[in-house]
């Protein structure tokens, strides 16, 4: 069951498994990448009285726990996704879609002495195949 997997995921990060958090993870899994508004609009269908502040709070908690990650969109709203294997993103500036690009190795960044890398995220912007070919 999906929810059991998410419950285990939350527990592994020492977070309580609440119906709201499970629903948010389910939405993120379904969307791949979703912004706060998308999550909020979806979750309202299940928890009618949930507030945007509650969604923010839970997203932040899961962010801090390293369960989900934020993807900063150029000139747009941040998207969130469940943390999985390292990958890069392609952002299509025409349809605003985010694509996961397999990226098995971390970039060989040459950092100056004394710099400690924490996270390297690559965001490529451009036009996706669907928009490019007009299919
Ligand atoms: Zn596109
Ligand atoms: Zn991604």
Description:
By secondary structure, the chain is an alpha+beta fold. Strand 2 and strand 3 form a beta hairpin. The protein is 37% helix and 19% strand. It is globular and about 45 Å long. The chain has 2 domains: 80 residues, Winged helix-like DNA-binding domain superfamily/Winged helix DNA-binding domain (Arc Repressor Mutant, subunit A, Orthogonal Bundle); 49 residues, Dna Ligase, domain 1. The strands form 2 sheets. The protein has a 3-stranded antiparallel β-sheet with strand order 1-3-2. A 3-stranded mixed β-sheet has the order 5-4-6, with no helix packed on it. The chain has 5 helices and 6 strands, in the order ααβααβββββα. Helix 1 packs across helix 2 and helix 3 packs across helix 4. One zinc ion binds next to strand 4.
Secondary-structure-derived class? alpha+beta
What CATH first level of the largest domain would be assigned? Mainly Alpha
The fraction of residues assigned to DSSP E strands is 15-25%
CATH fold type of the largest domain: Arc Repressor Mutant, subunit A
Q: In terms of per-residue confidence, which ranges show pLDDT below 50 for 5 or more consecutive residues?
A: none
Cofactors and ligands: zinc ion
Ends distance: 36 Å
- Name the overall outline: globular
Give the neighbour order of strands across the main sheet. Answer: 1-3-2
Number of strands: 6
The major pleated sheet works out as:
3 strands, antiparallel
**Helical residue percent?**
25-40%
- Radius of gyration based on Cα positions: 17 Å
């Amino acid at each position: 069951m999906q929810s059991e997997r998410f419950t285990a995921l939350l527990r592994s990060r020492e977070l309580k498994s609440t119906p709201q958090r499970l629903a948010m993870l389910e939405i993120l899994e379904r969307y791949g990448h979703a912004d706060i508004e998308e999550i909020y609009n979806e979750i309202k269908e299940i928890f009618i009285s949930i507030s945007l502040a509650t969604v923010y709070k839970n997203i932040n908690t899961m962010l801090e726990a390293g369960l989900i990650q934020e993807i900063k969109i150029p000139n747009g709203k941040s998207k969130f996704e469940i943390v999985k294997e390292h990958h890069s993103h392609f952002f299509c500036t025409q349809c605003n879609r985010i694509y996961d690009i397999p990226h098995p190795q971390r970039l060989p960044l040459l950092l100056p002495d004394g710099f400690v890398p924490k996270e390297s995220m690559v965001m490529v912007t451009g036009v996706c195949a669907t928009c490019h070919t007009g299919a």
